[in-house]
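haha ok so turns out i had the wrong file open the whole time. this is the CORRECT one, sorry everyone. sequence first:
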Amino acid sequence: ATLVSAPRGMAGPLRAVARCVAGNLVSRQVNVWSRANLGTAAAASHLDDDRKGLFALPGLHEPSDFARLARRAVARSDDLMRRLVSSGPSGFPHRSATAVIDDLDEISDTLCAVVDVAELCRNVHPDLRWVRAAENAYVELQGYVQGLNSNRGLYLALVNAQERHGAELSPEAARVALTLRQDFERGGIHLGGDEHARLEKTAGDVIKLGMAFQQNLSDPKAFGHMDVSWLRLGGVPAGLLSSTAEGGSRDTGFARVPLDQRTVSAVLRYADEPDTRRSVYLAAHSGPEANRAVLDGLLRARHESAKILGFESHAHFATSPLLAEHPDAPRALLERMASECRDRAGEEIEAMLRLAGRDGMDGTVRGWDRSYLIGKARAKACELDAAAVASYFPLERVISGVGALVDRVFGVKLTEVAMEPGENWHAKVRKLRVTSGDRGAGEGQEIGTIYLDLEPRPRKFPHAAHFVIRCSRGVGPDKQRPAVALVCNFGAGSAATLSHSEVETFLHEFGHAMHSVLSDTQYQHLSGTRCAMDMVEVPSHLFEYFAWDPAVLGLLARHRVTGDPMPREMIARLRASKELFGATDLQQQCVFALTDLEVHALDPATLTEGSVSDVAARVQAAHSLMPVEPGTSWELRFGHLVGYASTYYSYPYAKCVAADLWGKFFREDPLAPGAGEALREGMLRHGGAREPGAILRDMLGDGALMTDPVGAAPDPTSMLADLNRGR
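then structure:
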């Protein structure tokens, strides 16, 4: 096991093909491999090399192999599709309902084996030849998937299996059938020719615009840079500037500061000069300007898709199959949470100013001051020195400590192993094998693989993210074992230390990894994080609690020089600092989630150039005490609008559920084996194979969910109690 997310989540950030068979993602304009090129696929097959290659995918040794593997995946899927279609209603007696579900899942697994690897490759590989080949395969296969989504023969075979012979299906197979049918129907299988063609076009626009938005966040030409005098960068760690400020030098008197997320966050956190923070904040949050038109187009395409399918808005479309069921359920919860923490947020803002000595402030905390003042206030109130705290979190120790944590809690072991020839995409990437521990039968049995890609480099995905490479699937000795990659951007080198915030990020992503690796499903369609979108963040938020627990810090923290454990007094001060600014953090999460819902409820007919920024500003003014900074458009940097699309509320939902789970199973003794077993058996092993409401009620009781006529939301009582614990 080991690390991950998607911008704090994007877990996803980036769930590239949540369900390949019904991905409902792209147009068929590139569907060139489905039948016309089967001869090419067959001719190429004799050249196939089944040795494991890049990302341990057999046959992937050169960029051109992506095209060949995609053709082979299409050929195999077409064979399965013909078998399913030929066994439609008239031919069904020859095949069982279970066999139909098995074949559909095999189609999904066959395509995802290439698409998921392509999604990871295009985000992390340093060689542009690989990136371009991966992007082409990704788009082409999404086109083929869209063709499957509209294949009425596949749909009828599924419906026949579900309606006439559903009694023979296992509970998991029945849920696969249910979710596949929902996805087929949400993909427009019932639509006539003209409407279906419109839907295919808008689906293609969505995938292309989403890719463009994310590329602008990682392209230096898109996010830009600014030149800042070295004299105005006091307080910013020298190592960060020397590694990122290309184009400037001490001789010229300025540093060329790139406006990527990592560098901007560091300047806003550490720069002592207010004008420096202001200049960098305003420059960074005014773009990338290219994303303005991209985002408008993305919202228009999503809205049109939803309307074609009979939904009021994309927000209604996205929430309908999830735990929430309707956008009003998360909207009400978010508004309640923001309101109930408002008084506490006001106290926190006053504390920022008071404890930081006001630092020349005019009584208002501005957007460019918040991170800096929080750091200063925490250091002063809790007598914490960020560098001193980081000295207890050398990266190597944190990784080994996480290994000890999952051994104690889940009974699994992490072992670093060598890469096979051609498996690695960068020299600094590491491979961890996950095996069962010494509890009961199966000791030493391989469970899965986690790759760690932790250091920053040019063109790499700029956030923390969990990428699925291969899903859990099957039973017995031939079971397919899951593999994931955890992508972060921590300090470079084996001597790197992590801030406590980065440790928390590491654990957040590691929660995603455990969800994937400890999943034990027969069908990959519902494996691990392929569950309801508004449940996917629960394990990752639960794992954040480990970063603050004294017993767990005993495993994670050792001084980089002396090897001494973190002193109890420092742990106590660190824990006290957690409770200082939770309300302003929560309000910000509510602003993000409400903005996501509201922009996806906009009528494109009313969209103007500034409409989306107006909505973001209005939501912030209503639900946060932080002022709106004129001329800024933070939503242009908010990649979750692509990956979560109307479901960013999953983060606040997860905070509520995680607080309940921690209180019931972990608070008294977080390292007790029984606590981990309850989480593993009650939630992680099921992935999406059980209805999310049933999982929560079984683990937490009937009071875990608040329901109303339109939808469901978790009870925020425990989370708000945690927030106010130190008040």
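Residues 97-124 form the longest helix (28 residues).
again sry for the mixup
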